[in-house]
Amino acid sequence: ALISMRQMLDHAAEHGYGIPAFNVNNLEQMRAIMEAADETDSPVIIQASAGARKYAGAPFLRHLILAAVEEFPHIPVAMHQDHGTSPGVCQRSIQLGFSSVMMDGSLGEDGKTPASYDYNVEVTRRTVEMAHACGVSVEGELGCLGSLETGMAGEEDGVGAAGKLDHDQLLTDPEEAAEFVKATHVDALAIAIGTSHGAYKFTRPPTGDTLSIQRIKEIHARIPETHLVMHGSSSVPQEWLEMINEHGGEIPETYGVPVEEIVEGIRHGVRKVNVDTDLRLASTAAVRRFLAENPAEFDPRKFLKASTAAMKGVCKARYEAFGAAGNA
Ligand code: G3H
Ligand code: 13P
Ligand code: NA
Ligand code: ZN
After folding, report:
1. Domains of the chain: total
2. Per the domain annotation, does 194 fall within a domain?
3. Of the candidates 321, 288, 247, 319, which has an alpha carbon nearest to the alpha carbon of residue 43?
4. pLDDT tens sequence across 266-307
5. Active site residue 82
6. Distance in Å, CA 296 to ligand 4 centroid
7. What's the domain range around 90?
8. Single pTM value for the model
9. Could you tell me if 152 and 103 are in contact, meaning their C-beta atoms sit under 8 angstroms apart?
């Protein structure tokens, strides 16, 4: 059944676990997420970005999610809009049937340029007012997401519009977080604690301190009722990179956030963990290998099945590691 994200995260907080929020764009990701949730008995957060709506088209995306609810009626599903760039964007998603929206006012309407605190409060407050009237949950974001190692926001070209960020810009201020929640009444808050989007988070193998666990603790202590969200939570498993590169790919050396560090974050208040890149890597690795090993094959269902299986494996592993398994 479709439920609100607030309800789902309240349960996660009460029982001390985290829920992976996977991005969806197509049928294969949808199947992977739902079959993994079914097999591990996990609640599901499906999120769609503006890019996903552009790729699949809003009606297809909406019906893909509704189809998931229809086929797996016993699994609770939250349908979340990822990184909305304005209250208008969030409003259109609510009209489309989403049960949760993210108003990312940490960036301007271009989705790139860091915005002022006052702008962030204003657009987020307006979104909450509208969403809560419809029973829809809201996630806000405070701080500039960026790698503590590289200082980069992790956009595709490796150079965000913000350029290289300073260390204190990369960590959400706990006092400001408390003020922000008081002013906006968001249900969940995405915080900057050292992660960045995409595959290029860290240039060196992690040594256990990619995240600022200390900062998570400080923020959680001030806003215990607000569910903390960790964006940029892909682990960039080396096995997928190797499989891609062994079959014609050319992905340079790169590292993500170790699962154990995310689990530590969950221990200190993180409830929603956004994962997109890991499913992209798994899918590409599986497809590259399948086509390399079966050069005469041309039925797309064959390589897409390999894609689904690889992504499903990642989903199951995250449901289990984050403690969501057994909580559907
Ligand atoms: O936060 C970004 C997500 O990974 C979605 O990426 O905008 O390419 O769909 P996208
Ligand atoms: P990754 O790029 O680390 O998977 O992060 C995804 C994300 O934060 C989506 O909002
Ligand atoms: Na989001
Ligand atoms: Zn994100």
Report:
1. 1
2. yes
3. 319
4. 999 999 999 999 999 999 999 999 999 999 999 999 999 999
5. yes
6. 39
7. 5-321
8. 0.97
9. no
